[in-house]
Amino acid sequence: xxxxxxxxxxxxxxxxxxxxxxxxxxxxxxxxxxxxxxxxxxxxxxxxxxxxxxxxxxxxxxxxxxxxxxxxxxxxxxxxxxxxxxxxxxxxxxxxxxxxxxxxxxxxxxxxxxxxxxxxxxxxxxxxxxxxxxxxxxxxxxxxxxxxxxxxxxxxxxxxxxxxxxxxxxxxxxxxxxxxxxxxxxxxxxxxxxxxxxxxxxxxxxxxxxxxxxxxxxxxxxxxxxxxxxxxxxxxxxxxxxxxxxxxxxxxxxxxxxxxxxxxxxxxxxxxxxxxxxxxxxxxxxxxxxxxxxxxxxxxxxxxxxxxxxxxxxxxxxxxxxxxxxxxxxxxxxxxxxxxxxxxxxxxxxxxxxxxxxxxxxxxxxxxxxxxxxxxxxxxxxxxxxxxxxxxxxxxxxxxxxxxxxxxxxxxxxxxxxxxxxxxxxxxxxxxxxxxxxxxxxxxxxxxxxxxxxxxxxxxxxxxxxxxxxxxxxxxxxxxxxxxxxxxxxxxxxxxxxxxxxxxxxxxxxxxxxxxxxxxxxxxxxxxxxxxxxxxxxxxxxxxxxxxxxxxxxxxx
Length: 557
Known about the structure:
It is a single chain. This protein is α/β, with parallel strands linked by helices and 557 residues long. It has three domains: 114 residues, 3-Layer(aba) Sandwich (Rossmann fold), CATH 3.40.50; 197 residues, Nucleotidyltransferase, domain 5 (2-Layer Sandwich), CATH 3.30.420.40; 84 residues, no CATH class. The chain is 35% helix and 26% strand. The strands form seven sheets. The protein has a six-stranded mixed beta sheet with strand order 3-2-1-4-11-12, sandwiched between helices. Strand 23 and strand 24 form a beta hairpin. It is globular and about 80 Å long. The mean pLDDT is 87.
């Protein structure tokens, strides 16, 4: 049996699956005491089950996504080493960026040494501000990690209690700005993610569950619980990935659909092409900045069923903040869920309380509760529809989308809007109508995220860079550099080394890789020429296990 648990900002969903059938499911409010929330959700689905038969549990969460969407993450200082090239003014886009001396070139050679006194002066400045979160990022640190490690040692020796993150370990690819952003978010979300992980561990201990435990990543794959703490930012779009896999599991094979997951805090958008979730080639985009987080091509909007409504300049405004549940459910503020309740588009909560909430908003606009509710629903639908149209412009630029389009030999658009989440029933049909699509709200749509998490395949990835001229190779995920001892090192041996490294890394986290499962997603070879002779080669290789779901859910059971 498999268990899937999706921890959202509003509700925590849980399912118990036996092969391809849903045996039990639950939806409980996410409380401030996360441990109690998890225990309640687990108790509801395993009450009548043999816990010893649970093979694995997969958790997904929108906690990190919501923190970022609502800008509630921690303050972080960044020490960056851009070296020569662009003016350093280009990198001073935030007050917490500190530029320090030191540079590694594109081949991994030191060209400017570090200045310890300069680093210590900046550390003193940071200490006076009260910050204890620091990210260290060098432009070409993925080619040589020595500078980042030296800076980290200087910081740790002086301030051992500080949280220090290294860009080379967090972002394995070139692209300095994206690695800066990824490092920043990792550092900012480290503490809340640690709290989430500890709550998961304690909940399972208290309920005497000893199954394998995984966390769903932004790319739709899973990673063992103990390994996920290395990269909390990998869960940044865990919730949207879960809903996408949930739609995949709850619809027929080969479907092409826009996924709209309307939760209490956010609305998540994704695209499935012929049964395959669309992967972002550039990485996750957070607040209009690209990161190096491998992710599905998704977007998370700060609009949900519990978004606070207010009046701004005689217009109904949908705030990006959540102050609690809808007023019809005992919450403090009017929300879109109250609007749905007034219009009988949901049966959640007390209709009289919802009507009172809408009536208060209508006083300044001289509108009835029903008129306000219709405007609210229209406003939510317009916002989500507009974002889907904007997303299509981005989706169409993805290499995977272009290949799919070519294979179909003619222009084709998805004709289905698949709605999941608590707000699906109320809003999806209106969204689909505006997009000229038909609506699909699958069975178990309210817990689709948990189903998607439960069925996600474990995934691992390794990036190898080898430089035969300099005689070393780097496994980016492990953060270490080794000598190449084989004088006949070539492309086949580089590929074999990458695959072996993937198997070893997977074994470290308790993931078994079957023969033939490893995919090569990048293989680039560059000749190094000196005086018209080839003096060496550079190999950049990425290998991974495939993403996807282990099965689909049988309906009507």
